[in-house]
Amino acid sequence: MQIRKKCIMFVGRSQAGKTTLAQYLTNRQLNYHKTQTVEVIDGHLIDTPGEYVEQRGFYGALSVTAANADAVALVQSAVEEGTMFAPSFGTMFGGKPAVGIVTKIDMATEEQIERADRYLKEAGAAICFKVSSVTGQGMPDLDKWIQAL
């Protein structure tokens, strides 16, 4: 019997770092491209277009896509001034665990990183990871969490 890897859906605004994060976690070359539609990567990472969180009309698509996920990762760039996540946003996924991932920490100040962390916790992330897909900083902790899921 083959053990199925847990499936995680990445949700966040355009250019938050969702695709780059997925590439890093699947040992692919970092190569930016605009995600146009939901992409399932290696059968266990779901990369969603930023428009799905930027336009409320797509929230239904996020909910439907989350049905195939074991957890939802709310992805927030540390260098973004604001956030697209409303308070308790992570609760809209039918009780799936919500984790926060602050990306681009290699480009941000400590203050920016803490602000992004606060946004994610307000959005309902039970735990937050601070990572850089470029340097690999913080990735071992995130990977350990994914493996334990």
From TrEMBL:
Pfam families: PduV-EutP. Transmembrane segments: none annotated. Gene3D superfamilies: P-loop containing nucleotide triphosphate hydrolases (3.40.50.300). GO terms for molecular function: ATP binding. Keywords: Nucleotide-binding. GO terms for biological process: biogenic amine metabolic process. It comes from the Bacteria. Belongs to the EutP/PduV family. NCBIfam families: EutP (TIGR02528). PANTHER family: PROTEIN YOEF. This is EutP/PduV family microcompartment system protein. It comes from Clostridium aminobutyricum.
